[in-house]
Amino acid sequence: MTAPGTDPGGDGVLTAGELRQTLDEVGVCTWSLDVAEGQVTASPACARLFGVPLDRLSTFAEIQALVHPDDRRGWEDAIQRTLRAGGAYEFDHRVVRPDGEVCWLRSRGRVHLAASGRACRYRGTIVSIDEHQRIHARLQELQSELVHVSRLSAMGEMASTLAHELNQPLGAITNYTKGCRRLLAHPDTDTVATAVEVLDKVAEQALRAGQIIRRLRDFVARGETEKRVEPVARLIEDACALAMVGSREQGIALRLALDKRVGSVLVDRVQVQQILVNLIRNAREAMMHGPRRGLGIDARLVAPDMVEIAVSDTGPGIAAEVAERLFQPFVTTKPGGMGVGLSICRTISEAHGGRLEVERNGSGGATFRLTLPATQDEEPAHGG
Question: Sorted alphabetically, which PANTHER family does this protein's record hold (predicted)?
Answer without folding.
Answer: C4-DICARBOXYLATE TRANSPORT SENSOR PROTEIN DCTB, SENSOR HISTIDINE KINASE
